[in-house]
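Hello,

Following up on my earlier ticket. Below are the three sequence lines again, exactly as submitted.
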Amino acid sequence: MTRREAADRRQGMLLLAPTAVALGALTVYPAAWVLWLSLQHRVPIFGVSRFAGLDNFAFLTIDARFWSAAHTTAVFTVASVALEVVLGVAAALAINAQRRGRAVALSFLLLAWAMPAVVAAKLFEWLYHPVAGLINVALGRHALNWLGDPGIALAAVTLADVWRTMPFVAILCYARLLAIPADLYEAAQVDGAGRLATLTRITLPLLGRILLLAVLFRTLDALRAFDIMFVLTGGGPANTTETLTVYAYRALFQTLQLGFGSALSVVVFVLVMGVAWAYLRILRTGSVAA
Amino acid sequence: MRPTPRTVADLVIVAALAAYAIPFFWQLLTSFKPEAELLRIPPLLPSHLTLAHYRVVLEQSLMPRALANSLGIATLTTVAALVVGLPGAYAVARRPVPGKRWLLLAIVASTAFPQIATVSPLYLLMRALDLRDTWTGLVLVHASFALPLTVWLLAGFIREIPIEAEEAAAVDGAGLAKTFRWVVVPLLAPGLASTALLTFLFSWNEFLFAYTFTVSEASRTIPVALALFPGVFEVPWGDIAAASMLASLPPVLIVVALQRFLVRGLVAGAVKE
Amino acid sequence: MSLGTLRATRLVRALVLLTFAGCAGSPSERGPVTLVFKYARILGNADPLPSLLREFEAQHPGVRVKGEALPWASDDQHQFYVINLEGRSPGFDVMMLDCIWVPEFARAGWLLDLTPHLQPAELAPFFPSAVAAATYDHRIWALPWNMNVGLLYYRTDLLAKHGLAPPETYEALVEQVRLIRARERDPALDGYLWQGKQYEGLVVNVLEALWANGARLITDDGDAFPEPARAADALRFLRGLITTGVSPAWTTAADEELSRRAFGDGHAIFLRNWPYARDLFEAEGSAVRGKVAFTTLPGRARGEPGAGSTGGAHLGVSRRSRHPALAVALARHLTSERAQRAIALGAALSPTRQALYHDEELVRRNPAMPRLHALSLAGRPRPVTPYYLLVSATVQPEFSAALVGVKVPERAIEDTRVRLGHFLGALR
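Thanks for your patience. The regenerated structure is below:
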């Protein structure tokens, strides 16, 4: 190693030091701490703080509310990501095929994505209002109790989340579509490929990799989704919209059960990291063209 | 050529526009509707428009305070994340650092970090340091949470800058600080803008930490104030609509005026490897 | 609804739901001593509190009292207190507490022990059950401020028209609902309204159903549902009220006000609610004025006689208050007979001092006061335990699930037992 290289290394480490310190202190250290907390019975109000081993996790295996929340999380994640991908690709293709109005369409999509989830939740709470909500007004006599009926509340929450985050998928796909060279399409036309064939043989395969990435980010977000159901339904009615994150938050801060709540947090954490890891493997080994 | 696909695309666009524009405009309309007409539908359109809800929100609610808190916290978060993240990103992009692979992996992994995973220890930390209800506490948490993405994005943008410019500066005897100031930062300006926008929006929109680490009304940020908007007898839908409009103001401005940078950042965040 | 009724509604509701809007008190110059009082702000011109606070200032020269608003919902209030009191000095001296929180806050060490500050017989004029709710570990931690008890309201006109006496059992109530609705042929007339939304009010309603069926929620030793079969039966009965249409489907989303309004608009025969509702039914312009009376909640045909759950707000003093003697004096001033009379007159909240139920002025305004006294005395408190909130938060989703029908009652009871067993076990 030359002196120059050594100096560069030193400099690099110096430049990275603040980042490393910040991440260490406020992400890595708390992540280790939460593991430690999850192994305790810890309720600060009552001065309870003692080691509990795997007690909290053992309880989770027989906790009906935990399994119900896990189920809700799974349904919410799969449904919202699937809808977002289908609608997002459709929207991206439609915008791409459009000459006029692109900017306006993009702006509205971006706005829905850029505004706080709490605003979106309030907006939908009003749209879902049993009497004066626009959706029920449009449905007329078929009006539904969107957020109050345990049979449809989860669907209502999912719909609100799809509305808010579908633009992310659409914009990523649209950006990729812009980058597809026009001669590819011309070649296809020369070969006599129809529109459907062009779509399935050229466009969609080219979108493959970016879609996979979009699905990754959206799945991670859906697994840790909190704001939208916390504000829209608070997990109700009858806990039918309570996801693992909402359950963890309630355990942590409604009754300050820091040990038990941390065990739930750890489960969410492991779930998210597991999914991220699995996707990354698919991305790396998969032969999806980019 | 048959017109079908174009027609289909047109229909999709119209439907999508309606699905996105109508909720916005409905909320906007609600914020100007007289109180007595809010729950009386039809008619859809109000008999007249009123500023009463905005008056309530601006004069009688805690929203102005929350706007100030959010503006301050989001701005400071952005500055902090950039000041810490830029040198880090430069090192990642341009310097041979031992264990870089692992570091990159850690950074990517932490962008996927769920907030719920660290909220309990951070609560204890904030309590121990007496940082609850302070801007400092939220800025620290927000900035550290946004940092991985900041570093990731900036490193990608730095790699796009031709290295020759820096080498030329180095040959001219400019130190790192000078190179940074006169070469890297100017070339990086659009990337910095994209990153700053995303960080700002993250902090502006963040709810879970803000909700947990603020207790007093005076310290609430916009999403928290909106989520806890006080209704006394009925849910004040008109006031909430007005407050929502105010809460969306910065995102709207960013989307309208700085769309280019926003999209660039958004796409870069997903694609850069 | 007239303006007067509206104002009365607002006033009362603001206090009952412990709500707030904006800031109370004027930010004038600071005296040498400032006491901060956290309470749910009362709106309207007749808000008796500001004048009571000014009165206190007049009696204590150099002392200023600053009223500060509490959040809107009971859940938020509790979280506000917990996070503000836990591990630091709060910025307030006197606080309004839901009586169910007193043991929890006392055990956590957040409240000043008032026992040494009290005269020997000072609490004798109060309801014993209210004093019991303020007692933990044989010491007094708060002063009872207002009193609540669950009541059965009924439409005197409808019952008289069909020759019926107020029901003493739920079975009789269901029968009367069937009879009246069959004869009235009014599809808009609901039978029995109560509170089934997933919140503390649901726990109260279910508790009353459990007691009527001879079941308990939790024993003094912390065992949940010592009579599981009876408890499940009570839940099934409540669910049955909804499925058979005796209670409307929206009962599972109903809180006090939603049900109070529907009954107040004349759309129901029976209603379970707190005493404040009576004043609103009797207010000028009310659709049911002069047509409403209340009685004790029914029992079950083969069970015990019914009893309403008691509740109410207490005033506690922060242990970290820098002016404990003054803070105690303020709490005492606000719970005095004079202050409670003013509050009862201005805001229709029931006093905790028993003599006021026979006070000439108050009885003239509300002739039902003596009756209310008897029912308040007969009321039953919710379990007095420092873990009440944990218990309530644990049972709420289970009860709600049983009511909306996503869980069978036995399953809800069993799940609750398992959960409470684990959580309470962790606290030992």
